[in-house]
Amino acid sequence: MTQSRIRGILTVIGLTAVMWILEFLDVLFGNALDTYGIQPRDINELGDIFLAPFLHFGFQHLIANTLPLLVLGALVAFSGLGRFAAASLIIIIVSGLGVWFISPASSTTLGASGLVFGYFGYLVLRGFVERKTSDIVIMICVLIFYGTMIFGVLPANEGVSWQAHLFGFLGGLLAAYLLPKRQRPAPLTGGYGASGSYGGYGGY
């Protein structure tokens, strides 16, 4: 495993740990951090789209997001730290803006579910874009174990932000499409009778 991949996976673990620390602080200070959720169409609150994914409405909310965030985030990070960071930023922006534009005016949206759905969308489309065995295998496994997530982009339970799910998913698709393909290394060449071979793929 390359250093970039290791750093990417450690970053996922670190981000998840930060979410837990923030939730402990939120409880300690009487849910004061919940005010940093996304307030639709309030221009003064637009910057909160970068904070909201790391905050949650209680530990039950955080627990529900933790495992899929770790699993799907680690699979994205397997492409390398740079690609993980770029994909995460695209997902956060698209998901946050979608919530900001179309969520009900009186709502406040927090949570990592936009990222979770974004990583899901990224991994599914990346298998088609890259057309590499590893990406296709990951895509198939994600569809098998998390395929029912797709229904979360539809309006369903009251109090659940389907807007964050939908636009997070779209952000993941956009990231998979926009980020450049990982280049295959050039074949090695040698003298008489030498044959070329492909080495491992580096992270982005």
From TrEMBL:
Cellular location(s): Membrane
Gene Ontology terms, MF aspect: peptidase activity
Membrane topology (UniProt): Multi-pass membrane protein
Keywords attached to this entry: Hydrolase, Membrane, Protease, Transmembrane, Transmembrane helix
GO biological process per UniProt: proteolysis
TM regions (residue ranges): 9-29, 49-77, 84-103, 109-129, 136-154, 160-179
InterPro entries: Peptidase_S54_rhomboid_dom (IPR022764), Rhomboid-like_sf (IPR035952)
Pfam families: Rhomboid (PF01694)
Domain Peptidase S54 rhomboid: residue ranges: 48-180
Keyword Hydrolase: yes
Domain of life: Bacteria
UniProt keyword Isomerase present: no
Family designation: Belongs to the peptidase S54 family.
Protein's UniProt name: Rhomboid family intramembrane serine protease
Source organism per UniProt: Salinactinospora qingdaonensis
